[in-house]
Amino acid sequence: MEPSLVTNPALLPVLHELKQREPIFHRPEFGTTRQDFEAMTEPDFWEVGASGKRYSRAYVLDVLEERFKHPDEDAWEASNFHCREIAADNYLLTYTLKQGERLTRRATLWRRTVEGWKIVYHQGTVVAD
């Protein structure tokens, strides 16, 4: 039933770079301010949360701004990374994220730009028992 997710060996350097950036917005080395998050997202970025709700870039930036005013430890474990190029300089990165008892599948569309990596879209889906 599970798909065979094997990253093309030619994409392993991209996979390595993107793994360092996930889960998105939880890597302080890439920034913790609204300006940092604006720089790492495309202007038309949006996401679908694990609840199935859609969130605009502006909403996500507002939430992140509040979250980082009072940061706390967020214990998580990311695994099963897979990367595929879906168009020139556009990559789909998928992985599994365990946060306490919650298990989700994550998908992020990344674009390589002259300014660096930009997030185009993100989705989290809760894994059903």
Tell me about this structure.
- The chain is of the alpha+beta class and 129 residues long.
- Strand 3 (77-87) and strand 4 form a beta hairpin.
- 16% of the residues are buried.
- The protein is 20% helix and 43% strand.
- It has a 6-stranded mixed beta sheet.
- The longest helix is centred in the middle third of the chain and has 11 residues, at 57-67.
- The chain has a single domain (9-69, 76-126), classed as Nuclear Transport Factor 2, Chain: A, CATH 3.10.450.50.
- The model has no long low-confidence stretch (mean pLDDT 94).
- It has 3 helices and 6 strands, in the order ααββαββββ.
- The chain is globular.
Helix proportion of residues, in percent? Answer: 10-25%
Number of DSSP helices? 3
Net shape: globular
Could you give a short account of the major beta sheet? Answer: 6 strands, mixed
**Sheet with most strands: strand arrangement:** 2-1-6-5-4-3
Low-confidence stretches: none
Instruction: Supply Rg.
Output: 15 Å
Number of structural domains: 1
Class of secondary structure makeup = alpha+beta
Task: Output the CATH class name.
Answer: Alpha Beta
Mean pLDDT figure:
94
Distance between the termini: 15 Å
What is the N-to-C order of secondary-structure elements (H for helix, E for strand)?
HHEEHEEEE
Per CATH, the architecture is Roll
